Amino acid sequence: MKRKREYRSIERSAAEQARLRTIRKQFKNRPTLLELVGSGEYGKPISHAVLLDVLVHLKSLRQSAQLSLAEMSERTGMDKSALSRLENCAAPNPTFSTVERYLTALGKRLRIKIEDSR
Hints:
Largest sheet: none
Oligomer: single chain
Radius of gyration: 22 Å
Order of helices and strands: HHHHHH
Helix content: 55-70%
CATH class of the domain at 48-105: Mainly Alpha
Shape: extended
Strand content: under 5%
Number of helices: 6
Number of strands: 0
């Protein structure tokens, strides 16, 4: 049996409508990643391979500390399945805070170093 779809009208003030129009205009013609890099304003994005190397290293750190996923789950407050996806590079785009939380549970920290190019 199909349910009839309900529609609700949203009442907004004139000021709220103007604010939303301004936001839509601002983001209407957003440049693509290639356009941003081509403009010279932004550098090349971090390689996905670098991220994968970090994630693979997380699993080896946990294993060398002889911790199970259940123990890591208790330490991080993250679900075991989320930890497994993170370690096996199945998490599509983990945040720095997620990686930092994982490392803190191991007594480690992530350092990113910027150096002059040669």
